[in-house]
Each structure stands twice: as structure tokens, then as C-alpha cells.
Amino acid sequence: MVERIMDPNNIRADHLERYNFAVKKIKEFIKQPSDILDVGCGIGYGSYILHNMLSCGVDCIDKSPVAHGVFLESFAKKSPGINYIVEDFTKIKTDRLPASYDAVVSFEFIEHIPPNLAQSVFDLAGEKSNLFICSSPNERVRPHQLPPVNEFHYKHYTPEEFEDMGRQAGFDDVDFYCQTSGKHYEVRPGLEGGKFMIAVFSKQGYGYPKNKIKGGVLETQETMMS
């Protein structure tokens, strides 16, 4: 089951915006990051954004040799600091990777893999970093089985499921953001009305949780302080 962007000249604006958002968030946590891990990178356009805008090294993982070929043709020469690893992330030996990264990102990936593998993405991020930024269609706003059904998606996740997986992986805090739709792709705080959610996970002392889920209700920084 695969749904891939293979044309580097025809990338959806909402996909690009997620990586631009990740750049901003990573800068908030770390003034000058040195190494980022991008899980499920596809052709590597997002890794290219991270590499160029953060001026740092990027390890990216994807099991598709075809996607790797597009990366080599379109991005590799312009981004010598990207290490593209052609491997199934569930089979890669973690000692093949550095002991830690400044951040791990995973966009346009969780919904494309079997649900029983989703926790493995979070666990890899939790093992390697204090900061994890990932996305999924929000099941509460865009149910997976609501027509038209995307045949390339296994599952859409709820914010509660995301938070549970994050905590199981060792993250203490989560900050939620969203995009209204593919056409209205500006990233904004919270979850209301956003088809796509973006979660920023961090470990204790690494950042302040502004938009948390508690008892199934979204709490903002203002409500938690009131």
C-alpha cells in the first residue's frame, strides 16, 4: 500500500508547510541543531528543507529504492549533508544510527503503515531524541472510512491515540497544531476543524506543553493556567 509524491516539481503545499513548521519548532527548542532524523522520508524533499533551512545534517529513512533514485537525481547534489538510508525502519539496527538526534520528524507516514507498526515510529523517536514532530489526518475531523476513502491509508489517528503512543515512547509533553485542509494549509495552534494534526512531543524540561489533551478535551496554555 503506497501513496507517494514522486515528482519533485509537484509537491503539495500543505506537505511542504509541515516541514517549514518543523523548522520553526526545532529552532524554538534548539538554536543550532546538528543532526535530525526523518522517518519515512519518501523522495527526500522534506529532508532537503530541514537540511537547508537548519544548516544541519539529516539522516532520512525510507525503504523504497525508487524514491531513493528520485532523491539522488533531484536533491543529493544540492544537499551533501543528507544521509539517505534505504531500509525498512522496523528492520534497521538502531546502532547503525547515531546515539541521539536533536529532533526526529515523521510526516505523511504514520497513516501509510499498518497500525501495529505505528508505535515503533514513536519508540524509535523516543530512543533517539527528546523532540519528535509528526502528523496524521485527525480521525475526529476526517474519519478514515468517510467517503471518499483514501485507499492508501491504513488508519487515521485521534489526538488521544497520538498522546498515548507518545507517552509510551517516553515523551512527557505534547503540543498540538493543525491544518484546516490541503487548500487551507496554514499551521495553527490547537485541533479544532483541522483535518491534519501535527503533534510536537518533548520530554520533561525540554519544552512547555501549550495544547494538551486531558480527558478527551483539548487544553490550551491559557486554560491550564486559569
Strand order of the largest sheet: 3-2-1-4-5-8-6-7
Largest sheet: 8 strands, mixed
Question: In terms of structural class, how would the helical and strand content be classed?
Answer: alpha/beta
Low-confidence stretches: 208-217, 220-226
| Helix percentage | 25-40%
CATH architecture: 3-Layer(aba) Sandwich
Radius of gyration: 16 Å
How many individual helices? 6
CATH homologous group name:
Vaccinia Virus protein VP39
Q: Sum up the overall morphology in one term.
A: globular
Order of helices and strands: HEHEHEEHEHEEEEEH
> What distance lies between the first and last C-alpha atoms, to the nearest angstrom?
46 Å
Report the CATH C-level class: Alpha Beta
Number of domains: 1
Q: What is the arithmetic mean of pLDDT?
A: 90
Beta strand %: 15-25%
Number of strands: 10
List strands and helices in order, with pairings.
Elements (H helix, E strand, L loop, with lengths): L12 H17 L5 E5 L5 H10 L2 E6 L2 H10 L7 E5 L16 E4 L8 H14 L2 E7 L21 H10 L4 E7 L7 E3 L6 E7 L8 E4 L2 E4 H5 L1
Parallel strand pairs: 1-2, 1-4, 2-3, 4-5
Antiparallel strand pairs: 5-8, 6-7, 6-8, 9-10
Helix pairs in contact: 1-2
Polypeptide structure, described:
With 226 residues, this protein is of the alpha/beta class. The protein has one domain (13-225): Vaccinia Virus protein VP39 (Rossmann fold), CATH 3.40.50. It contains 6 helices and 10 strands, in the order H-E-H-E-H-E-E-H-E-H-E-E-E-E-E-H. It has helices at residues 13-29, 45-54, 65-74, 115-128, 159-168, 221-225; strands at 35-39, 57-62, 82-86, 103-106, 131-137, 173-179, 187-189, 196-202, 211-214, 217-220. The protein has an 8-stranded mixed beta sheet, with helices on both faces. A two-stranded antiparallel sheet has the order 9-10. The longest helix has 17 residues, at 13-29.
